[in-house]
Amino acid sequence: ETGVTQTPRHLVMGMTNKKSLKCEQHLGHNAMYWYKQSAKKPLELMFVYNFKEQTENNSVPSRFSPECPNSSHLFLHLHTLQPEDSALYLCASSQDLSGRNGYTFGSGTRLTVV
Amino acid sequence: QKEVEQNSGPLSVPEGAIASLNCTYSDRGSQSFFWYRQYSGKSPELIMFIYSNGDKEDGRFTAQLNKASQYVSLLIRDSQPSDSATYLCAVIGGRKSSYKLIFGSGTRLLVRP
Fold it and tell me: Which residue of A has its CA nearest to B44?
């Protein structure tokens, strides 16, 4: 596989459930990101990881918990979410934090919280 | 003030015309500028990036940057119906977003056959 792969593509979960989103990049990049995209709003940066170390938590509620075991894998653990958390969650990677060549995005996980 | 501003559109152009998409940014120190295309229900796809003032051409696409005016644009020549999508402007490298790619809300483009 090439590029950035996200699973699952779609997820429906209840407010009391615990689930995890997975992201894997095959580009040899060192930085990885989680973004949230809600309807009619700009992409919102959630977390930044560089060489598997978290460098940014953009005031994200604790019900979202990221994990980066290595430079190629990134997870977003979800628990006790709210309906307003329903959105498209996008993983991205870049060669380094400068991002000069842009970010490569995965296909996203469409999350619905019921 | 939003960090990256775009007109939400939709911008409607006939097939074969030039589509002009505009973006302004607030952080004067921003270094790198990007245009992404996003089809409905899909993830953003990088079209072009530009670092220096002036024009950068790639096929039917031309990115234009004016740092003094804090203005970035994307021209699409010979627009095709397949170009219909939302175009996202993004910037990185400013004082507030030194290592974070900050996106505008996007402009929806409709190319009429």
Answer: A105
